[in-house]
Design goal:
By secondary structure, the chain is of the alpha/beta class. The chain folds into 2 domains: about 1-100, 5'-nuclease (Rossmann fold), CATH 3.40.50; about 115-145, no CATH class. It is built from 5 helices and 8 strands, in the order E-H-E-H-E-H-H-E-H-E-E-E-E. The strands form 2 sheets. A 5-stranded parallel sheet has the order 3-2-1-4-5. The chain has a 3-stranded antiparallel sheet with strand order 7-6-8, with no helix packed on it. Helix 3 (about 50-60) crosses helix 4 (about 65-80) and helix 4 runs parallel beside helix 5 (about 90-95). The longest helix is centred in the middle third of the chain and has 14 residues, at about 50-60. The chain is elongated and about 55 Å long.
Length: about 150
Amino acid sequence: MYILDTSVLLSGFVPDNFEEYITVEEVLHEMKRKSYNVKMLKVYTPSRKSIEKIEKYIRTSGDSLSITDKKILALALDFDGTILTEDYDIQNVAKALGIKFRSIITEGIKEVYKWKKICKGCKREYPVDYKGRCEICGSDVIVVRDRA
């Protein structure tokens, strides 16, 4: 079973056997805005349990995912399927959680990245869920790749 992400459909991929490909409703909504016909795709809603597993992981990893991204990953957990995606954020979380994925056009990621938040000015570190400016110097708090 293959789970299709919007990025793969936008790259020009056309499923050869619609029986093997599924997606989430949000992908269809994104594709309607692009005038792309995906009416033959089967649409599923992922389980709450799988969505919660994805959300639990990203709370600690610092990854930033859309609702659509989370549901694509959760659907892959539910069906033990392979995600077809060009989206590096989806690939990063998939690789970390042992979810199978493939790129169609690009090479895809090689390693899992973790993220952290730091102050752009004084470099103070903040939790990945921190929102706001630096409490010390007032500078912007930004997301950077954790080198650890």
